[in-house]
Design goal:
Family: Belongs to the peptidase C48 family.
Helix content: 40-55%
Keywords: Hydrolase, Protease
Number of domains: 2
Distance between the termini: 95 Å
Largest sheet: 6 strands, mixed
InterPro entries: Papain-like_cys_pep_sf, Peptidase_C48_C
Number of strands: 15
Organism: Talaromyces islandicus (Penicillium islandicum)
GO molecular function: cysteine-type peptidase activity; ubiquitin-like protein peptidase activity
Structural class: alpha+beta
Shape: elongated
Mean pLDDT: 77
Strand content: 5-15%
């Protein structure tokens, strides 16, 4: 055994730390969290292309614009700047996903021949097993260029860079979690079913606005971005660990000639040890009575050694090179560079180009200030899982990186769910919807005698669309109309609101003894009609004393009943719980007062029932108790869905 090896193994290489780094990067060709997100996003994309959730007549350009920008019209000046940004950006077709590194297997191989700032990385060479292959260049490694990058990456203007960064921060703020796994399970189950099994309802009534699918795809894209940033942090940590181990090896590990190893020898030793732990290629020992432990020479499978071991070493070297370059870049420019739109392109430069890049950035005081104000955003993303978009806007203003007018345009364009939507903007959207119904459906302005059908619904008076305005309480009819437009899996059913109370002719309100009797019969009818389609999930609004709505879910798949109340209170909880236990006792399902974001006004309960149903029906989260959602912005989403329904001919005149 090499002199000093035991000291190295037990004093500077704790097993738990070694395994930590092996698990983080030892098995990867590309970052695993990133590729999981990409694969999940691909599954959702396939489902969308196959029209698994019906979106007949969907206008994709309107859909994407509405979903990404909250239905708000884009300021003309900023629109021009965004288009200009797209034109000047190289090799990028999606500016919101440009941060994600799509590294190929070829890159994994080529990066083994990178150099450090002082030349090639000492010790990054072939193991004894790799030497069996004819690779005479591996021993010394190539100096100079590492990739066929013919020139520096075209540099964006400061406004281009800020636009791209804001888009990334906006996505990370809006989509805080990955797409839930049950969604992917449902998609695969739907793909595997025959067409006859999928069509449990009439195809003509299965239209939806498709905005939920855009949300799913955006969540998948955002998960890739978040995972990529965390991967870069991992690479830097792995490089710092590797560099420290090499320094320690130089002081503790000796060559066969009894001399301390140099940097190259130390690095090679650390890599050999890392591979040994990963592959389990330890030298076996056997105890012989009267002799003691005897080392048994293992007969290696040459083919397996040449393949698996070589690829493992190249993967590790590739990721260490990434960590080395990222560490140098962060030290020179700041942590905020990790959110830069071209970060992966930077890591693929030659060292000569890389050093020139650093000098160029350092000479641009505005970009240095940009990466300085981005550093807290990276820290918050790592610590809390999401950045602070509003703080970034404030920093842009305080540092005067762009004019205040452009910062305000960004604030209007890239908003969060909690940002207040002006009443005038919601009113304008409602006016547009009513005018569209008049021109496209009625051929006249709607009045109190006009009625329509929304996506196959029953008759609806056109006057109810006025209930979409700010501060207006919704009735059963508008809730039903909005529910007809949302994306729903084939196993989801919804019904009209169920009143828990009735008002007699004298205006006296009385509690209904068994309010869910009719809904239970309707559920039984749904179950008979779709007996071969598997378990169903039922949703229905609940009307409390004619002044508040909540949402009830009865889930046959999970054998659970959940109540979602945006104005939760003990009295209402006790009453609903008691009625459920009495009327659905035969199901033997568990009951839960589910976590629901709370309203702070006295009118948005109906809006929130629709908004919650749209997400819950598709397995998407709605938030926790203290999650803030602006009521006007939620109502605007409903208006956008109804507008898309009118534009695609799914709203028709009920009678001539």
């Amino acid at each position: 055994m090499v002199k000093g090896a035991e000291d190295f193994r037990y004093q500077i290489w704790p097993v738990n730390e070694t395994h930590l780094w092996i698990e983080r990067f030892g098995n990867q060709i590309a970052p695993m969290p990133h590729w999981r997100a990409v694969k999940a996003n691909f599954v959702a994309t396939v489902a969308l292309s196959r029209n698994l959730y019906p979106i007949n007549g969907l206008k994709s350009e309107n859909l994407v614009t509405s979903a990404l920008h909250g239905g708000a019209s884009q300021p003309e000046k900023l629109k021009y700047q965004i288009q200009r940004s797209k034109q000047t950006r190289s090799n990028s077709t999606d500016n919101t996903i440009s941060l994600v590194g799509e590294d190929s297997v070829e890159n994994d191989v080529d990066e083994e021949e990178h150099g450090t700032e002082d030349g090639p990385i000492p010790g990054i060479r072939a193991s004894s097993c790799e030497m069996a292959q004819s690779q005479p260049h591996v021993e010394g490694l190539m100096e100079g260029e590492e990739f066929a990058i013919t020139g520096m990456i075209p540099e964006s203007t400061i406004l281009d860079t800020i636009l791209q960064v804001v888009q990334v921060l906006h996505q990370l703020s809006i989509y805080r979690i990955e797409v839930p796994r049950p969604i992917h399970v449902r998609i695969l189950q739907t793909i595997q079913k025959s067409d006859s099994e999928q069509l449990t309802t009439s195809l003509d009534t299965r239209w939806s606005d498709g905005s939920t699918w855009v949300r799913i795809l955006e969540m998948g894209s955002c998960a890739s971005i978040r995972a990529t940033v965390l991967n870069m942090v991992e690479y830097m940590g792995a490089w710092a660990w590797f560099d420290e181990q090499c320094q320690h090896a130089k002081a503790t590990v000796y060559t066969k000639k009894g001399r301390l190893v140099d940097r190259r020898g130390g690095a090679s030793y650390v890599l050999d040890m890392l591979q040994q732990h990963q592959t389990g290629a330890t030298t076996p020992e056997k105890w012989i009575s009267g002799v003691g432990p005897v080392t048994v020479r293992a007969i290696r499978d040459t083919a397996n050694c040449d393949g698996k071991t070589t690829q493992l070493r190249k993967r590790i070297i590739n990721q260490l090179h990434r960590g080395q370059k990222l560490s140098k870049l962060v030290k020179a420019v700041g942590l905020g560079i990790l959110l830069g739109p071209k970060i992966w392109d930077y890591t693929k430069m030659s060292w000569k180009q890389f050093d020139a890049l650093i000098e160029m950035i350092q000479s641009d005081h505005r970009k240095m200030n940009l990466y300085k104000v981005l550093s807290p955003q990276v820290e918050q993303l790592v610590h809390q899982g999401l950045p602070d978009l509003h703080a970034f806007y404030n920093d842009l203003e305080s540092e005067k990186l762009i004019p205040a007018s452009q910062v305000n345009q960004l604030r209007m364009e890239y908003v969060l769910d909690s940002d207040a939507l002006p009443d005038a903007q919601l009113d304008a959207a409602v006016d547009q919807l009513i005018q569209l119904i008049g021109s496209k459906v009625l051929n006249n302005l709607p009045d109190k005698n006009s009625s329509v059908s929304v996506n196959g619904s029953a008759e609806i008076s056109c006057t109810i669309f006025e209930q979409l305005r700010p501060g207006t309480w919704m009735s059963d009819e508008i809730i039903m109309a909005a529910m007809e437009t949302i994306d729903k899996p084939a196993f989801v059913r919804h019904g009209l609101s169920i009143p828990l109370d009735k008002i007699d002719r004298h205006g006296q309100m009385w509690a209904i003894e068994r309010p869910f009797t009719g809904w239970a019969k309707k559920m039984a009818s749904y179950r008979r009609d779709t007996e071969e389609a598997g378990s169903l999930v039922y949703f229905c609004p609940i009307n409390h004393q004619n002044n508040h709505y909540s949402l009830l879910e009865i889930n046959e798949r999970e054998r659970k009943i959940r109540h979602f109340d945006s104005l939760a209170g003990k009295d209402r909880h006790d009453r609903v719980s008691s009625l459920i236990k009495k009327e659905f006792a035969g199901l033997r399902y568990s009951y839960e007062e589910a976590t629901t974001p709370q309203q702070t006004d006295n009118w948005s309960c109906g809006t929130r029932v629709i908004w919650n149903l749209k997400r819950l029906a598709n397995g998407l989260p709605i938030g926790i108790w203290d999650t803030v959602h602006d009521s006007n912005r939620m109502a605007l989403e409903i208006v956008d869905g109804l507008t898309a329904c009118v534009e695609d001919g799914r709203v028709i005149k009920y009678r001539d």
